[in-house]
Amino acid sequence: MRCPHCKQAIEVYKNPVPTVDIIIEVGAAIVLIKRKNPPYGWALPGGFVDYGESYETAAAREAEEETGLVVQNLQQFRTYSDPGRDPRQHTASTIFIAQADTEPVAGDDAVEAALFTKTTLPDLVFDHGQIIADYFTFKKS
User: Fold this and answer.
1) 62 among known catalytic residues
2) How much is the pLDDT for 119?
């Protein structure tokens, strides 16, 4: 690729896209959303980090947009970056844990939002099944 102004060669880098996902605890349950867009299915609330936005702000924003919940005690859990975790492109998702005290209401990219326990989890898209398994292991320790 060449610079349109000086015509010098420009290296183009292809990097993973930053995303966030959030495990929202409501009592003994966690919030999942049913996705409005492909890939369809149940997932943790989350999405892309906007330019100029911190990951923490992105996680709180996505939680509120997709579930109507204002979260408290936001804490970083882990980052998942396997190149195959999202079939659309290579993403690196930083996972947060937070709490809320009301029922979720689907919004934005979600057609449904509901509470689930470890024993009532549906099939999940992306690597969210692994993330939630890791979360429950972490909570036991």
Assistant:
1) no
2) 95
